[in-house]
Design brief:
The protein is an all-alpha fold and 95 residues long. The protein has four helices and no strands. 0% of the residues are buried.
Length: 95
């Protein structure tokens, strides 16, 4: 029996592997996930339409973070904010 060159064996292996992936991927996408009866999507609801209660310290801290981020938000989105300014924002958020 004559041995085939390694290039032919490798290309056949690659072709077979590619075919296996192409055939296997749609089968994975068709997998369904269901829950038992009586379970459904639960929506997040507020307390009779009211906002959640927060304490004064949380409101002040979140306000400080918002006020600190607002002047820099455009530079952040453009990717132009300097590393030192990022460090200052991080310090502000962690204080």
């Amino acid at each position: 029996m004559r041995k085939r060159p390694i290039r032919i064996r490798t290309s056949r292996f690659v072709a077979a592997a590619a075919l296996a992936v192409v055939c296997w991927t749609p089968a994975m996408a068709q997998e369904t996930h269901t829950h038992g009866p009586g379970t459904g999507v639960h929506g997040l609801t507020l307390n009779a339409g009211q906002k959640w209660a927060t304490d004064e310290h949380l409101r002040k801290a979140m306000g400080r973070i918002r006020d600190g981020m607002n002047p820099s938000i455009q530079e952040i989105h453009r990717g132009e904010l300097a590393t030192a300014k990022y460090a200052a924002l991080a310090k502000l958020a962690n204080d």
